[in-house]
Specification:
The protein is of the alpha/beta class. It is about 40% helix and about 15% strand. Strands 3-2-1-4-5-6-7-8 form an eight-stranded mixed β-sheet, sandwiched between helices.
Length: about 240
């Protein structure tokens, strides 16, 4: 039985992944909405616990990290499914990038031969969108999110290498969620790639790879996406990288 932590686990993509993983594993759900988390826990059963906290804030992360350290001394899989559809730049940076980075770093003492998975966007957008720091409208903010999450994968893969922890990202497919009006109208509520990438032994030593909703590798430009570019770009938002 593995210990699996899922952010954004109260609904949408996170809940769909938790539903697939909770039958035979201990799952800790994280989210901001305690009512949603309570309903998710009730639906999924005794293998599931939860903690409510806003991962975009220092106090929220501290609450979540404290809860997890009291629950376990090891994390097998951390899945970053939390995220927002941003309407301004600070919310995008704090919710869709820094929340992932700082939670992962805060939990790294619990990693040993573990897996970190980052839920991200459509493969075509990630391949075609330029890495650009401008966020002048919703489309540019969406492009910023998927490109910078991809760079985060490369950054964390390097930082967690010593603990033999892999870091990968994947597109969950178009899944019903509260993220935006479009996703609220969708019928699909399954994310098969989540369970596959979290548990299948064939991914034991695979790191810094991006996968589609079927769990197939998506080849990205090595010139555009690599650890050096990740450090250079993400240091604009993570001051520690400049040290």
């Amino acid at each position: 039985m593995k210990i699996i932590v899922i952010t954004g686990g109260g609904s949408g993509v996170g809940f769909a992944i938790a539903r697939d993983l909770s039958e035979h594993n201990q799952v800790i759900l994280i989210g901001r909405n305690e009512k949603k988390l309570q309903l998710a826990q009730k639906s999924l059963g005794d293998n599931v616990s939860y903690v409510a906290g806003d991962l975009a804030t220092i106090l929220g992360r501290e609450k979540v990290v404290d809860f997890i350290f009291k629950q376990t001394n090891h994390i097998d899989v951390l899945i970053h499914s939390a995220g927002i559809f941003p309407t301004n730049n600070p919310d995008n940076i704090n919710n869709n990038l820094l929340s992932h980075y700082y939670l992962t770093i805060s939990l790294q003492k619990l990693f040993d031969n573990s897996r970190v998975l980052i839920v991200t966007g459509n493969p075509q957008a990630i391949k075609l969108a330029p890495i650009c720091e401008l966020q002048l409208n919703n489309m540019m903010r969406a492009a910023w999110t998927v490109t910078h999450k991809t760079l985060l994968m490369y950054l964390l893969a390097g930082q967690l290498k010593d603990s033999k922890t892999t870091v990968n990202s994947f597109f969950p497919g178009d899944v019903k969620s509260d993220l935006m009006p479009y996703t609220q109208s969708l019928a699909n509520t399954t994310v098969p790639a989540g369970k596959l990438l979290a548990l299948d032994a064939k991914f034991d030593h695979v790191t810094a790879n991006f996968f589609d909703d079927n769990g197939q590798t998506v080849k990205l430009s090595a010139e555009k996406y690599n650890r050096n570019v990740a450090v250079k770009v993400l240091s604009n938002y993570i001051p520690e990288l400049k040290a």
